[in-house]
Specification:
Elements: E1 4-7, H1 23-34, E2 38-41, H2 50-53, E3 64-66, E4 71-74, E5 77-81, H3 86-98, E6 104-107, E7 114-117, H4 122-126, E8 136-139, H5 146-156, E9 160-163, E10 171-176, H6 181-192, E11 199-203, H7 209-213, E12 217-221, H8 226-231, E13 234-236, H9 243-258
Parallel strand pairs: 1-2, 1-11, 11-12, 12-13
Antiparallel strand pairs: 3-4, 4-5, 6-7, 6-8, 8-10, 9-10
Helix pairs in contact: 1-9
Length: 259
Amino acid sequence: MIKLVLTDLDGTLIPDAQEGVSPNTEAAIRELKAAGIAFGPCTGRPVNMLPDLFHNQLDLYATGVYENGTLGFIDGVEAFRHTYPGEALNRLGHFVAEQGFSELTLFDPLHGPSERYGKERLEELDQLDLSAYSKANLHFDSLEELPGIAEVLRARFPEFDFVMPVTDQALLDILPHGISKANGALELARRMGFAPEEVLVFGDSDNDFEFLGAFPHSVAMANGSEKVKATARYTIGQSKDYAVAAALRELAAYARKES
C-alpha cells in the first residue's frame, strides 16, 4: 500500500512555474491527504520559492525534499540538511568565473534571495562561509555547451556532483558528492517510517533519474527525457495536461476503497 507520494515540480506536477500549482492539482493533493496518504515535493528548488508556487498553502509542501536532496522537512520541521565543503565551493566559483564559463549562484542559507558571483565579486565570495550553504547552481549561454563543461567540472571538482534540473534550460545544479534527490527521498521516507515500496514517485528530467530508480513504484511523464522514461516503472501523460493530479485522484480513490 502506498503511504507517501513524492513528486518533482517543474515539468511534472507544475507545467508552468509562473502560474504555480493549479487549483485542480491543489484539490487533488488535498484529496490524497484526506485519504491518509502523505504528500511532498521532491525538487531542486530552495524552500523560499515554495510559498509562491503553492500560493502560500503551507500544508501542501510542509513535508518534502528540497534543493536536490540537501534539505528535508517533515510537517514543517527541518529533518535533515547537507551543506557544501566550503573551500571546494570557493575554488569552483573562482574557476568558472576566471574561465568565463559561468557565475556561481548562491542561495542564502536563511532562504533569502540568490546572489551571483562573477569575476568582479570574487573577493566578496572569499568572505563568505560557504560551508553554511546547501543550494548553488551555474547558468550557461546554451544547452549545447552543457555536457562538455559538465564533464570538465566533474573531473576537476570530485567533491561535487553536477546535474541538469530541467531539460529546457542551460543550468547545472551543484550538489555535494553523493547527495541526490534519490538519497534525500530515501532519507525522508526512512525518517517517516516508510519502506521504499510504500512510496510512489514522479519525475521528468535527468536529475530525477536516480530518484525514480530508487523506488519500485516510479512514474515518468510523457514529456520527460528518454532516460527517465526508460528508468521508471510507468509512464503517464503530459505535465501540461495535469497528469499527476489525475494519478493522485486515482490513488486516493483506491485508498478509500481499501480502507
